[in-house]
Amino acid sequence: MNESKQSPPGTPEISYTVFNDESQLKAIQGLIEKELSEPYSIYTYRYFVYNWPQLCILAQHEERYVGVIVCKIDHLSNPELWQGYIAMLAVDPEYRRQGIGSTLVEKAIEMMKAEQADEIALETEQSNKAALRLYDSLGFIREQRLLRYYINGVDALRLNLTVSRRSSDASLS
């Protein structure tokens, strides 16, 4: 997947691509460390990007990475059910409010549906109003409050999206 999204006049043209080699790892790590409160080791990033490279999608403006979503898909306790999981989402502050975060999540959802996900879960800080608005607009349901979930002591909300595999489409157009 290497595609561009048509942008309104005056906004940069953003292309989207999946993870394909170690050279992108530093950019992924830089975006996430700048935007998320949790510290992750290089091994955490490698766990996701090498096991599910198709579910690590990067947004790029010219030569600069400006957004990333890192996901996985795994069995739930029932071996017949698959759960997609959005582990990390970050967009460079200079590129926010241009639909990049929404596009990254939408592309990840489509990829997880194509891989037969039954549901998609994530956690986000309860105080992250922008993230909650984004996920609410995409149909995620707030399922549970997790007290002092993050290292910084902030509560999280667990969100879930039930997806229909029958409507999945593997294309990312």
UniProtKB/TrEMBL annotation:
- Gene Ontology CC, one term: NatC complex
Q: Which Pfam families match?
A: Acetyltransf_1 (PF00583)
| Stored InterPro entries | Acyl_CoA_acyltransferase, GNAT_dom, NAA30-like
Looking at the record, the residues that make up the N-acetyltransferase domain are 14-164
- Could you tell me the superkingdom of the organism this chain comes from? Eukaryota
PROSITE patterns to which the protein is assigned, alphabetical: GNAT (PS51186)
The Swiss-Prot or TrEMBL record annotates one GO molecular function as: protein-N-terminal amino-acid acetyltransferase activity
Keywords linked to the UniProt accession: Acyltransferase, Transferase
What family does this chain come from, according to its entry?
A: Belongs to the acetyltransferase family. MAK3 subfamily.
Q: Which PANTHER family match?
A: N-ALPHA-ACETYLTRANSFERASE 30
Protein name per its UniProtKB record: N-alpha-acetyltransferase 30A
- Its source organism is Drosophila albomicans (Fruit fly)
What is the name of the gene encoding this protein?
LOC117569387
